[in-house]
Design goal:
The complex is a heterodimer of chains A (185) and B (243). Chain A is mainly alpha-helical. Chain A is 73% helix and 0% strand. The chains are: A mainly alpha (185), B mainly alpha (243).
């Protein structure tokens, strides 16, 4: 990975190469950012294979839409927004953005992480899909309720209530996890 | 910031998950499709058309004059072909001879003599005896009705036993002149491919530009691409309606 990346001196050079359509630059970009983008997809989508498919589709979309980047702000941030939009599009197509209170909280397995982050990822994935999307967008991506309501097609009030419920659920789960960890000792 | 948000954001914001081999393979496939050079498609299409053209040409069994043959040599072959045709006619099979219903004068006389010798014979026997027994008497004067295998007048076949071609009236035009005469009409793509195949068979290098195959194939591909683009547009319109 470092060998490929060394061909491009800075992130800006890499971005320029990607925008131009240079195959080497695009492959180097994939090597560098595929891990981060897949983590974003895994936070929204429980199914690992579906998350990988969305990540690859997001990469291809970035290469297609690269010319629309105006070099104001971070290229990585711009790409992450595309990944988030692709993920939400997938969830919308699967009708998984609707909040289902009866949805069971099953914990997915995410390999290749240390214990704490793996547990946190599991907790996020255990959220119902509607709460999960709002929580990810607000708490981790940093969008406002106005932006979230526009992206998900809900009202700001719904966004706030879903965020509150998500926090309550996570808090309960964290307490249980702490209790289990202390009881093991 | 809410402590829950802070805790999760701190741990998950910059998290990286290593993609599996499946994801890497999927990405490579998409990149290969995206970055395949366009000329490879044209080359593949041209080679397929060339192979099909050669196959069609080989299956038609037409006589191709060799480049190194002069017009005189070709014309010299023509009497040999005529002689072979005459020989084939003389060597007509017995079955073909038996089908013949025409009778010469000599055979009619023979039949009459047989009838005179046996006047009291039954009608059936008479019928049998009055049928011309041409095999034993008048072989040389028979003009057998031969069913020719090939109907096309320009076909020349050298296998005498199996097929007896019709008496072909060979064109009087000079072969040398025909070869050297430039083509006046615009040939179809298949005709161009066949021409190039002839050059290839004679050991010459195939030049897609000289024959006009490359531009023709490119035009074909452009037309196809236009059709596909229109279909894609239609599909996207339909998708929007159902979204």
């Amino acid at each position: 990975m470092t060998k490929i990346f060394s061909l491009f001196r800075s992130e800006q050079d890499l971005a320029k190469g990607v925008i131009k359509g240079d195959e080497k630059a695009q492959r180097a970009f994939y090597e560098k950012y595929s891990g981060k983008f897949l983590a974003i997809c895994c936070r929204y989508i429980k199914d690992r294979m579906a998350a990988e498919d969305v990540m690859v589709d997001s990469m291809m979309r970035i290469f297609e839409k690269g010319k629309q980047f105006d070099f104001q702000g971070s290229f990585e941030g711009w790409c992450k927004r595309i990944v988030v939009n692709q993920t939400l599009g997938y969830l919308r197509s699967q009708k998984m953005l609707e909040v289902n209170i009866e949805e069971t909280y099953t914990l997915a397995d995410t390999p290749n992480l240390d214990l704490e982050t793996n547990d946190l990822m599991k907790l996020v994935q255990a959220l119902p899909s509607g709460y999960r999307a709002v929580f990810n967008l607000y708490a981790i991506e940093g969008y406002s309720h106005a932006e979230i309501s526009e992206m998900l097609g809900i009202t700001e009030g719904t966004s706030k209530s879903q965020l509150s419920r998500a926090r309550n659920f996570l808090q309960d789960q964290l307490k249980k996890t702490d209790f289990q960890m202390t009881s093991n000792f | 910031m809410n402590p829950i948000d802070q805790h999760f954001s701190k741990n998950l914001k910059e998290l990286e998950v290593k993609p599996s081999d499946r994801a890497n393979r999927l990405f490579s496939e998409k990149m290969n499709k995206k970055h395949r050079p366009a000329w490879k498609y044209w080359a593949m299409a041209a080679s397929v058309i060339l192979v099909v053209g050669i196959a069609i040409r080989v299956s038609t069994h037409t006589f191709l004059p060799q480049d190194d043959q002069t017009a005189a040599e070709i014309q010299a072959q023509l009497p040999i072909i005529q002689e072979k045709q005459e020989l084939a006619q003389e060597l007509a099979t017995p079955e073909e001879e038996a089908e013949d219903t025409t009778l010469t004068e000599a055979t009619i006389e023979v039949i009459k003599t047989i009838a005179q010798i046996t006047p009291n014979v039954n009608k059936e026997e008479e019928a049998i005896k009055t049928t011309p027994v041409v095999k034993t008497f008048q072989v040389a004067s028979i003009q057998p009705k031969i069913n020719y295998k090939y109907e096309r007048p320009n076909l020349i076949d050298y296998t005498i036993v199996d097929a007896v071609p019709k008496e072909i009236e060979l064109p009087k035009e000079d072969f040398e002149e025909k070869i050297s005469r430039p083509a006046t009409k615009e040939k179809s793509l298949l005709g161009k491919i066949i021409k190039e195949a002839q050059y290839a068979l004679n050991g010459e290098k195939v030049d897609l530009d000289r024959s006009g195959i490359r531009p023709a194939v490119i035009n074909l591909a452009h037309q196809k691409a236009q059709v596909i683009a229109e279909d894609v547009q239609d599909l996207s319109k339909i998708k929007k309606v159902f979204k």
